[in-house]
Specification:
The structure is a single chain. By secondary structure, the protein is α/β, with parallel strands linked by helices. The chain folds into 4 domains: 125 residues, 3-Layer(aba) Sandwich (Rossmann fold), CATH 3.40.50; 174 residues, Rossmann fold, CATH 3.40.50.300; 77 residues, Helicase, Ruva Protein, domain 3 (Orthogonal Bundle), CATH 1.10.8.60; 45 residues, Homeodomain-like (Arc Repressor Mutant, subunit A), CATH 1.10.10.60. Helices cover 46% and strands 13% of the residues. The chain is built from 19 helices and 14 strands. The strands form 4 sheets. The protein has a 5-stranded parallel β-sheet with strand order 2-1-3-4-5, sandwiched between helices. It has a 5-stranded parallel β-sheet with strand order 7-8-11-6-12. Strands 9-10 form a two-stranded antiparallel sheet. The longest helix is centred in the N-terminal third of the chain and has 27 residues. It is globular and about 85 Å long. It starts with 8 loop residues before the first strand and ends with a helix. The relative contact order is 0.07.
Length: 455
């Protein structure tokens, strides 16, 4: 094995000489470092001598079959990816292979491009696994960021920003659509900071009425108002030396914003009904899915508070703008369910990747959990998907032509109308954003709305 090969090392275990040679020539031409074995015994010997990135193995072979090869790989090098191929495949064999830890299972005869793509994706998965381990060794307690999954350029940039932001005490404003994982990002900032050993306190500013929200944040003195039967410590006191996460900060009442501003300016406040200033050292991390600049223009948010909160902005991209991350997230949420014997077919993954996900990561997680819980199938197919997802993409629509034919123009109109309406929903009524989602001009978008009478 050539250790300096950057593309990856592959072992082919195949007793059919012609197939062995075809795979070797194919993978050699792709620039991989290829080794071969003509039976299971020779394959296991090589596995015990060297560590490969991928092992491609037939199932039925002399001495040791493919399942014994798979077991040997997992015993010696658990991170090595195993791809199994066979001319005698069935569903039971495929399920067994996946349960034992195979990356994928392919029936002969197969297309050359199919093998090429699967190996490329498998090596990408292995590369990402190595990068995660490297990051864990580089950053203190970075394991606490495990739930932040992403390899897309936008997420890589965001994760890099989190590490940099964590090194100082500046206030952070996280923006993004609902369901993007703003609290997860906030926890990441806190967990990597010097405040990690102190409290991380969260509160949703939209979940409480003004009086109760003020009491939660700043505490109160006994007798300050009806029902205040004892002194109550505020969350800012609880979070002293740590961080406080103010979710949905755009929903905070304007009167309460002034009191928050004082905390940000000089680190002090008073309990409701109190007469003494309380001084705290708290890092404020806030989040919103609103456009705070527009709120400032309409008088719903203080400009001076905005600048105090928005010292370091972190923008979370919506899931539809980081499709490369969706397969990783699907596997992550599948693993979290604890259900070991279920797997999504490539077709299902393709449908989920091309869905627009208006509810973002939260919707994806709920969908994965619902599918694997309700489905009795070990291989999750298109029929297991919710109808709104299954028929959201032209690629996933069933193509059936009756004996009497179909009205193609009407079908295409229905599809176009569905995409127009969906784009409006996702962009929350913004025609400009909806046009961008569909990669057409604003003028073209407006013309199509008029054409179909869509308001």
């Amino acid at each position: 094995m050539k250790t300096d090969n950057e593309k990856g090392s592959i072992l082919i275990v195949e007793d059919e000489k012609s197939m062995n040679e075809i795979l070797r020539m194919l993978l050699d031409s792709e620039g991989y470092d290829v080794s071969t074995a003509l039976d299971g015994k020779e394959g296991i010997e090589q596995i015990r001598k060297e560590i490969f990135d991928i092992v491609v193995t037939d199932i039925k072979m002399p001495f040791h079959d493919g399942f014994e090869i798979l077991k040997a790989v997992k015993d010696v090098s658990p991170d090595t990816i195993v791809l199994m191929i066979t001319a005698y495949g069935n569903t039971e064999t495929a399920v067994k292979a996946v349960q034992m830890g195979a990356y994928d299972y392919i029936n002969k005869p197969f297309k050359i491009d199919e093998i090429r793509i699967i190996i490329k994706n498998a090596l990408e998965k292995r590369r990402l696994s190595r990068e995660v381990k490297t990051l864990r060794s580089q950053f203190r307690e970075v394991y606490r960021l495990d739930n932040i999954i992403g390899k897309s350029p936008k997420m890589v940039a965001l994760l890099s920003s989190i590490v940099k932001v964590s090194e100082n005490n500046s206030n952070v404003l996280i923006t993004g659509e609902s369901g993007c994982g703003k609290e997860l990002i906030a926890r990441g900032v806190h967990n990597l900071s010097k405040r990690a050993n102190n409290e991380f306190v969260t509160i949703n500013c939209a979940a409480l009425p003004e009086g109760l929200l003020e009491s939660e944040l700043f505490g109160h003195i006994r007798g300050a108002f009806t029902g205040a039967t004892s002194n109550k410590e505020g969350l800012f006191e609880v979070a002293n030396k740590g961080s406080i996460f103010l979710d949905e900060i755009g929903e905070m009442p304007i009167q309460l914003q002034a009191k928050l501003l004082r905390v940000l300016e000089d680190g002090s406040f008073r309990n409701i009904g109190g007469t003494k200033d309380i001084h705290v050292d708290v890092r404020v991390i806030s989040a919103t899915n609103k456009n705070l600049k527009q709120e400032i223009e309409t008088g719903g948010f203080r400009q001076d508070l905005y600048y105090r909160l928005n010292v370091i902005p972190l923008i979370i991209p919506p899931l539809r703008e980081r499709k490369d991350d969706i397969p990783l997230l699907i596997q992550h949420f599948l693993d979290k369910t604890g259900i070991k014997n279920k797997k999504f077919t490539p077709k299902v993954i393709d449908i989920l990747v091309n869905y627009l996900w208006p509810g973002n990561v939260r919707e994806l997680q709920n969908t994965v959990e619902r599918i694997v819980t309700l489905s009795d199938n070990e291989m999750i197919s298109e029929d297991d998907l919710p109808s709104e997802i299954r028929f959201s993409s032209v690629k996933s629509c069933p193509v059936d032509i009756a004996d009497e034919g179909v009205d193609l123009d009407m079908i295409l109109q229905d599809i176009e109308m569905a995409y127009l309406q969906r784009a409006i929903e996702v962009s929350r009524g913004s025609k400009t954003d909806a046009a961008k989602l569909l990669n057409i001009t604003f003028r073209q978008f407006r013309h199509r709305l008029k054409k179909y009478g869509i308001e």
